[in-house]
Write a structure and sequence with these properties.
By secondary structure, the chain is an alpha+beta fold. It has eleven helices and eight strands.
Length: about 375
């Protein structure tokens, strides 16, 4: 009977101890960091969708590095005996990865938003600059180098706008920076040249005032050629009567210095002859007294002081003539009007009519602020 009770007690103890041992084994078995790793992976994925690998690269790479460290430690612990595993480092790296990935994502969103705003402002500014360049320098004879740089700047800005529209803000930013450099540098160089040209404005103004006063005094016609605005303006009795578009020599900026320089001269001249029919190849023409005495004196001075070679020849045969309307500066230095406009001018002017050719009737400040 005692033996029976002993067996019962033994089996009862085993029945209690075994589940207890199993419970303890389960209770103290290291728990794999599945939740932590999944969370770290999800935050990395979200950061990637927010383009953190592009706009917050340093933080994103740090998060990725922490995640890789977590995976490496997890693999290392899984090689150890079950009850000797310690996932503390795995959890630590996973949490660090999730934290940095979150920061990277938020920083990327902020950076993208800021870059987008700044890019929009810069693109608008450069488009305004292009408008200003077009207004001032479309017909201004810039050097081919500056003209090419402006064209390249416009092309890069156009490409930047396309990239911006596609959300490729870093690419758009790079192209905008390059466009800004080319356009700004070209504008500054062209503006310096224009400013230097307008230093003669006070002289131009005196010529115009004298010409219009004589027109008013003599009750006669006079012609003002405004090279910068490309205008041929006819006055009668000192009052503006007609205004036509004018086409000039290809290198019209500045005064004419030598024969063949394709520059339109500046000064106060008179019509010396009128040609039409077979006497001119330009429909109708008004010959000017260029070079006048002042032009000859300037030419002689430059030869004597070495600013022109001794072999240089002074120009001549400057006319206001027809065959214009081409929309470009194409003459050898003359002023071209359309044939219809030449009919008007040819009819009302005479030999001796004043023709004053200037750079501009408007000061540079007013030209720029226009």
């Amino acid at each position: 009977m005692k033996k029976v009770w002993r067996d019962v007690l033994m089996f009862s103890a085993i029945a209690v101890i075994i589940p207890l041992i199993v419970l303890l084994l389960v209770r103290f078995t290291p728990k794999p960091p599945i939740t932590e790793m999944e969370y770290a992976r999800e935050t990395l994925s979200l950061a990637g969708k927010n383009k953190a690998d592009t706009y917050s690269k340093k933080l994103y790479n740090t998060a990725k590095s922490y995640y890789d460290s977590a995976m490496m430690n997890w693999e290392k612990e899984n090689k150890r005996f079950l009850y000797f595993r310690d996932y503390g480092k795995v959890v630590m790296f996973a949490e660090l990865s999730a934290k940095k990935a979150t920061e990277a994502g938020e920083n990327s969103i902020s950076s993208t938003s800021n870059l987008k705003i700044k890019l929009k402002e810069k693109i608008e500014h450069l488009n305004d600059l292009i408008g200003h360049i077009n207004e001032l320098f479309t017909t201004y004879p810039l050097t081919s180098e500056i003209r090419n740089r402006i064209s390249k700047g416009k092309m890069l800005l156009s490409e930047a706008e396309v990239a911006y529209g596609k959300g490729q803000y870093l690419q758009a930013n790079r192209k905008t920076i390059d466009a800004e450099y080319l356009l700004t540098d070209s504008y500054e160089n062209a503006s310096a040249n224009l400013k230097d040209y307008f230093k003669s404005f006070s002289v131009w103004k005196k010529w115009v005032d004298k010409t219009l006063n004589e027109s008013k005094k003599n009750h006669d016609y006079s012609i003002i050629i405004d090279k910068f605005s490309r205008k041929c303006i006819i006055y009668f009795n000192g009052a503006r009567k007609y205004e036509f578009e004018a086409e000039l020599g290809r290198n019209w900026v500045g005064d004419k210095r030598i024969r063949g320089d394709k520059a339109t001269p500046e000064g106060m001249y008179k019509i010396t002859k009128k040609f039409e029919g077979s006497k001119t190849k330009y429909y109708k023409a008004l010959l000017l007294d260029y070079p006048n005495d002042e032009d000859k004196e300037k030419f002689k001075y430059e030869i004597e002081h070495g600013s022109l070679p001794a072999s240089a020849k002074i120009g001549g045969l400057m006319e206001i003539h027809g065959n214009g309307g081409k929309g470009i500066d194409w003459t050898e230095g003359c002023i071209a009007l359309t044939d219809k406009e030449m009919d008007v001018v040819f009819k009302i002017v005479n030999v001796g009519t004043a023709v004053t050719i200037i750079g501009s009737m408007v000061d540079l400040k007013d030209v720029v602020d226009k």
